[in-house]
Structures are given as C-alpha cells and as structure tokens.
Amino acid sequence: MSFAPRDSHEAQVQFALERGVPAVIGVLGTIKTPYPSAAFDMAHCSRCLIPWGANDGIYTIEVDRALRPGGYWVLLGPPINWKASYRNWQRPKEELEEEQRKIEEVAKLLCWEKKSEEAEIAIWQKTMDTESCRSRQEESGMNFCETTNVNDVWYKKMEACVTRTPKVSGELKPFPERLFATPPRIANGAVPGVSVETFVEDNNKWKRHVNAYKKINSLLDTAYKKIAPTIQDLVVNLTWVQRHKTCTISSHQWR
Q: What is its main location (predicted)?
C-alpha cells in the first residue's frame, strides 16, 4: 500500500503492478484504512506529507495494524536524511530532527527494526516475534486497542492504540501463486465458516465460470473483444455484508 497525497503519485503503484504484485494507493485521515489487520507485505510513503510522529504516532500505529509480521515500511523524503537536505526542503534543522526523533521513537515502541537508511530512504521491518514484542509494549505502558474483532475497521476512527496482531502461522506464497493458494488464515481455522475444502471448491468453481465466460459473446466485449481473455488477470471480489467476513483472505489484483 502506497500512501499518496494526490493522484500524481500513482507511479509507484503502477511500478508494482507491472511486476505482478497487487498494490493500491492509500490515504490517511481520521478513519482507519478499509483493510483487515495484517493485510500488507509493505507500506510505502514517498513524500506523502503525513506527520508520522504526530498525535502519539497514530498514523504509524495504523500502518503497523495493516502490516503483516515481517512486513516492511518504506519512508522516502522528509525528514529522512535531514542533515543533508534541510536547505533544499527549506525547513529548520531543529524541526526536521525532532520529526525524525518522534518517528524513531514510535517505531521502537512498535518493535520495528530499522533495516536501512540511505540517502532519503529509510526501511523498517515489523517483527515476526509478536509475543515478545507484546511483552515489551506492556512493560513500556503501551495502549492496546480494546476490540474482540481486529478486522472490524469499516468507518472506525483511528486510535493511538496497538492492535494485537492475529496469530497466524504458515508461509505465504509469492505472487502470483498466492492468488490461488489456500491462505494460512484458513488453514489455521482463523476464518469462521471457511475451511480449506470450501476455499478450494470455490476457487475451482470460479475457474470453471471464467472458462465458460470465454466461450460466449457478451455486451462487455469491446470492439477487439479483449476483456474475455484478460479476465483471468483481473481479480475483483464482491461479498455480501450478511455473510461471513472474508476480506482477510481475498486478494485484489488489477493489472
């Protein structure tokens, strides 16, 4: 997920899509991002103008909620490398130094490990050892969100509290294999009402539907009839609100 203040920043998402990796543009305001917890492998900010250290680190904490254990947060631009760039940015050194100090402080509380800082790019990795991290956070007095469903985020206000990362074990496949592989959340029984068997059955059912679609003419076919052969690379998921919540196991890929 790439946070961007305007549509002109879409290039970084396009860069990922062209390499077969699903990507979306995200925005942060006062409401949580509409994605389940531990949904993304990487979050990215390229001069996105978000005050990551402000308001008790509430925006960085929301990124932590959306990242999987082992996921990466990439920050490009101010205040990274402020010592060399503050003149170009036309901002006081003291202000930029304090801004980065707050970011580093929040990242430490979240148990993120800084993997690299070079030029104007810094990369942190979310810890895989969530249990140990939780113990350290409790000792430091970190606030934990009081919720029984960490994925119930629609129209929920952001809070300066840490969401407990769902306990899911199992290795995720790389893309594009992951699109059709059974998610570890299902294999571990973390999604009520969905089993490995039902997931595989549903997967095969839609493969049959797509193959059948290619054999008929449709009003959706354009002048050159490219939508039918392309549809296998277009994954769109619609789900009924009255049914089991399956957003945690859905992949959305637009290529």
A: membrane
